[in-house]
Amino acid sequence: MTRIHPQRRSIDASSFGSTVSTYSEKDCYEDCTNCKCCTRRCILICVVAFLVLGTIVAAVACVIIFALPQQPPVNRYCAASSNQAGFLCDDRTTCIEASELCNRIKNCLNGEDEDADICSNAPNNLPGYLIFRCADPRFWIFIDKKCNGINDCGDCSDESGQGANCPACGSQWWTCVSVFYQYCNCIPRSLCRDGIQHCSDWSDEFTCTN
Ligand SMILES: [Ca+2]
Ligand SMILES: [Ca+2]
Ligand SMILES: [Ca+2]
């Protein structure tokens, strides 16, 4: 006797009415990832799944980032030829004068002395040991311009001011109060007895010997 097995019918969700669904949550999730299911429940499952995955990925990234050894800040301090603090180039050998920073000339081999990170907001981004603030807080100079005999601040605070604490005039200089804006309390001995008054007391013309 031939038996006829009833054929299994494919399930047509529409035949059960709008509130009935035969999908399992697993099927639903798989369909969601393929954008084939748009029920609220599926969307909620998808959102939760992506949030959880996103949180895990973010947590792993944070662990990796914070677990990496932090690079210590580069110490750029060096003694320049002016006997003032200088800027140490990346080769850890070349020491340039502070005033060679941010002068639009690449004095370091790789040009790190002109790096926009430090030059775009000078002097705020410069190490404090490379600058000198004049008595007038609006002005500042590079440290190698302090005690160099020249009135760089404009008010001589970098040469004869208490904050500068400069040594006495060297052997190549004559001590007096200069009548020229360029100098302060020292004038080059080469200006002695040249027929031009450089000191307020004329000592450069009558007392000084060069
Ligand atoms: Ca430079
Ligand atoms: Ca100076
Ligand atoms: Ca003179």
Shape: elongated
Classify the secondary structure makeup into a structural class: alpha+beta
Rg, nearest Å: 39 Å
Q: Mean of the pLDDT scores?
A: 83
Query: What are the secondary-structure elements, in order, as H or E?
Result: HHEEEHEEEEH
Question: Strand fraction band?
Answer: 5-15%
Task: Give the number of domains.
Answer: 3
Q: Give the number of helices.
A: 4
Major sheet strand order: 1-2-3
Distance between the termini: 138 Å
- Report the strand count: 7
The unique ligands bound to this protein are:
calcium ion
Poorly predicted runs of 5 or more residues: 4-22
Explain this structure.
It is built from four helices and seven strands; from the N terminus they run ααβββαββββα. It has 210 residues and is an alpha+beta fold. The strands form three sheets. The protein has a three-stranded antiparallel beta sheet with strand order 1-2-3, with no helix packed on it. It has a two-stranded antiparallel ribbon with strand order 4-5. It has a two-stranded antiparallel ribbon with strand order 6-7. A hairpin with a 5-residue loop joins strand 1 and strand 2. Helix 1 (25-33) crosses helix 2 (40-67). It starts with 24 loop residues before the first helix and ends with a helix. Residues 4-22 have low confidence and may be disordered. The structure holds calcium ion (3 copies).
